[in-house]
Write a structure and sequence with these properties.
The protein contains 11 helices and 28 strands. With 473 residues, it is α/β, with parallel strands linked by helices. The relative contact order is 0.11.
Length: 473
C-alpha cells in the first residue's frame, strides 16, 4: 500500500485576492467544482492507496476534515504543525509517524494545490515508480515542459527521456529556477523536466536518507512526534521540539545530496497554479483566448482572464489584451498577465499599509461554519452567520457588545444564561452585554442567521470562552 502524504499549509500569495493567509488556494475551487485539496485527495485514493496522512496547521485543521468529509474520504492521521518549517521537517514527521506501523510501506509526498487533469495517468506514473521506491530509490516526478517557465526548478536527466513515457530514469541533478533565456535553452535541449515537488519512497529509505544527509533534523522532529498531543482526532506536534528543527526544504536537506535518485517523467498535464497566468491557461478559453469565471463579461478582449467571485459583482472588460482581473467582495486585482508573478508584491504592499485584505478572507471560516461582515459602522456591525448541521459555537460572553440574532434559514438552539430555547425562521433573540450565551444548530440543514452587534468595541478578540467542543483556547 502507498500512503499519500498531503502537504497543505501554504499561503499561495501569488493568487491574491482569492488566496490569502487565512484561506489559501488549496481550499478554493480555482479550477472546476472541487477544491484543489479535495481533488488531490481524490486523485490519491482507491486501489493501492491507504488513507491519506495530512500535514497542516492549526488554523486549517477543521477545514481539512470538513473538505475530506465532503469528498467522502476518511484521513488516516492529521498532524498539526505548530509553525511552518518548510517541507523537510514535515516529510520527516510523516515518515516517523508511519514508521511505527508500516516501516516497509511506501509514502507518496504531494502538495495539495496542484492541478492534474488526468488522475488515472498520474496513478499509473506512481505505479511505474513504485518498484524503484521499494528497491530503495528516492523517486521524484518530473513534468514534461510545455513552455519555458522561469517560476519552476528543473530536473536534469542523465539520459534521453525519449517519448517521456512514465518509467524510472536516472536523475543527474536539480537545477534552480532559471532566467528566461536559460529556460528556453533547457526546454530545447529536451533532457530537462519541471520539478513538481512530488516524491515516492519507502518509509525506512527516507528516514535513512535523513540520517545520512540531514541528521540534525532527526532529534527535534522525533521529539515533536513523540511528545505530540492528541486533540479531537488530530496530533498536535510538540511546539518546543518542533521549533528546534531547521526551516529547510526536502530538496535542499536530502534530495540534492542523495545518490539513490530516480525520476519518473509525467507528460499528461500538470500545473501548480503558481500564478493567475497559470489559472488562465487551465481555464476554458474562447477563440480569442479569453477565460471567464463567474459574473464576468468580455467585449472585444484578447488573451485575458476575467473572474468574479461574487454574483453581486459583474466584471466587464472592454478591449482588454493580456489582462488579469479578479474581483472579490473586498478587493479587486487588475494586472498585466506578464506581471502575474508580481502579485505577491501587492500582498507585501498591503501588509505594509496594514490593510486587512492582505491576509484576511471576506468569509471567516470556523469549525462550526463561517461568517461574513455585511456592514460595519463605528459602533455597529451586521454579519451573516452560517452554522453546519449539528455544530455549535462556544459558550461565551462579551465585555463590549450586545447582539441581536435573526434566524433566516433553519432553526437555532439558543442559550442565554440559564434559559435555553429554539428560535425558528423569522424569529429573533437579544443577547445583552455580558450574558453567557451559545448558538447551536440542532437540525439537518445549515442554519443561517443575521447578527447585529452594537457596542464600543466589535473585535473578534472580545470573546470569553467557557466551553468549546472544538477545544479552542
Amino acid at each position: 500500500m502507498i500512503t499519500p502524504i498531503l502537504l497543505c499549509g501554504g499561503s499561495g500569495t501569488r493568487l491574491w485576492p482569492l488566496s490569502r493567509k487565512s484561506y489559501p488556494k488549496q481550499f478554493v475551487p480555482l479550477v472546476g467544482e472541487t477544491t484543489l485539496f479535495q481533488a488531490s485527495a481524490e486523485r490519491l485514493s482507491g486501489a493501492g492507496f491507504a488513507a491519506p496522512l495530512v500535514l497542516t496547521n492549526a488554523d486549517f485543521r477543521f477545514i481539512v476534515t470538513e473538505q475530506l468529509a465532503e469528498a467522502g474520504i476518511d484521513p488516516g492521521a492529521i498532524l498539526i504543525e505548530p509553525e511552518g518549517r518548510n517541507t523537510a521537517p514535515a516529510v520527516l514527521a510523516a515518515a516517523l509517524w508511519l514508521d511505527k506501523s508500516d516501516p516497509d510501506g511506501l509514502m507518496l509526498v504531494a502538495p495539495s494545490d496542484h492541478v492534474v487533469p488526468d488522475a488515472a495517468a498520474f496513478r499509473a506514473a506512481v505505479e511505474a515508480g513504485a518498484e524503484a521506491a521499494r528497491a530503495g530509490q528516492l523517486v521524484t516526478f518530473g513534468i514534461k515542459p510545455t513552455h519555458a517557465e522561469t517560476g519552476y526548478g528543473y530536473l536534469e536527466l542523465a539520459e534521453d527521456p525519449g517519448d517521456f513515457a512514465a518509467r524510472p530514469l536516472k536523475l543527474n541533478r536539480f537545477v534552480e529556477k532559471p532566467d528566461a533565456a536559460r529556460a528556453e535553452e533547457m526546454v530545447a535541449e529536451g533532457i530537462y523536466l519541471w520539478n513538481a515537488g512530488i516524491f515516492l519512497f519507502s518509509v525506512k529509505t527516507i528516514i535513512e536518507a535523513f540520517r545520512n544527509h540531514a541528521p540534525e533534523l532527526i532529534a527535534p522532529v522525533q521529539a515533536a512526534v513523540d511528545h505530540g498531543k492528541h486533540d479531537l482526532g488530530f496530533l498536535r506536534l510538540d511546539p518546543d521540539s518542533w521549533a528546534g528543527a531547521n526551516d529547510i526544504s526536502i530538496d535542499y536537506a536530502v534530495m540534492e545530496r542523495a545518490d539513490n535518485l530516480s525520476v519518473v517523467p509525467f507528460a499528461a498535464g500538470w500545473s501548480d497554479l503558481g500564478g493567475w497566468d497559470a489559472v488562465w491557461r487551465e481555464t476554458e478559453q474562447d477563440a480569442r483566448g479569453v477565460a471567464l469565471s463567474g459574473a464576468a463579461t468580455a467585449i472585444d478582449c484578447d488573451n485575458s482572464l476575467l473572474r468574479s467571485e461574487d454574483e453581486r459583482l459583474e466584471v466587464v472588460g472592454i478591449g482588454l489584451k493580456n489582462i488579469i482581473t479578479v474581483a472579490m467582495p473586498d478587493a479587486v486585482l487588475v494586472a498585466d498577465a506578464s506581471r502575474a508573478q508580481d502579485v505577491k508584491k501587492a500582498v507585501a504592499a498591503l501588509k505594509e499599509k496594514q490593510a486587512k485584505q492582505a491576509e484576511s478572507f471576506p468569509k471567516d471560516h470556523r469549525p462550526w461554519g463561517w461568517f461574513e461582515s455585511l456592514v460595519i459602522g463605528k459602533r455597529f456591525q451586521v454579519k451573516r452567520i452560517v452554522v453546519h448541521p449539528g455544530a455549535a459555537l462556544s459558550l461565551q460572553s462579551h465585555h463590549h457588545r450586545s447582539e441581536h440574532w435573526i434566524v433566516v434559514e433553519g432553526t437555532a438552539k439558543v442559550t442565554i444564561d440559564e434559559e435555553v430555547k429554539l428560535v425558528t425562521e423569522n424569529q429573533s433573540v437579544y443577547i445583552p452585554l455580558g450574558a453567557v450565551h451559545r448558538m447551536e444548530n440542532p437540525g439537518k440543514v445549515p442554519m443561517v442567521l443575521i447578527e447585529v452587534q452594537t457596542g464600543s468595541y466589535l473585535g473578534e478578540d472580545d470573546i470569553i470562552r467557557y466551553e468549546d467542543v472544538y477545544a479552542r483556547n
